UniProtKB/TrEMBL annotation:
Name of this chain's protein: MoaF-like domain-containing protein
Species this protein is from: Kitasatospora misakiensis
InterPro entries to which the protein is assigned, alphabetical: Calycin, MoaF-like
Pfam name, any one: MoaF_like
Taxonomic path: Bacteria, Bacillati, Actinomycetota, Actinomycetes, Kitasatosporales
Residue stretches making up the MoaF-like domain: 9-92
Domain of life: Bacteria
Length: 109
């Protein structure tokens, strides 16, 4: 059985988060990698990451990755509504910190 490509494969999106952060997310043609680039206050930050992807409904994807810094990101991309629900964790004072966010997507390429 051959898995189909995720609908975001080969596309680039502007991801605007409810906390004011913004990212340019460029997905590889096979949908297995992401290059994210920070915008605004995060300008100059970027990373190429390997993705773990599961299609959980029509145009609905669970996507997760771990960054070199130890930050883990998991999000549900709803391409029909162009929205994201994101959860990320990182090492903070006193231990691991988790944050839940919402955001919007705009396809730019």
């Amino acid at each position: 059985m051959t898995a189909s490509l995720p609908a975001f494969a080969g596309r680039t999106f502007l991801f605007r988060v409810d906390n004011g952060a913004a990212f340019r997310n460029a997905y590889s043609a096979d949908g297995k990698r992401l290059r994210w680039e920070g915008l605004g206050e995060s300008a100059g930050q970027w990373e190429d990451v390997t993705l773990h992807v599961a299609e959980i409904g029509p145009q609905l994807y669970f996507v997760s990755w771990t960054e070199v810094s130890g930050i883990t990101v998991s999000h549900v991309m709803d391409l029909a509504r162009m929205t994201v629900r994101a959860f990320w964790t990182y090492e903070g004072e006193g231990g691991r910190v988790g944050e839940l966010h919402t955001g919007t997507l705009e396809q730019v390429a």
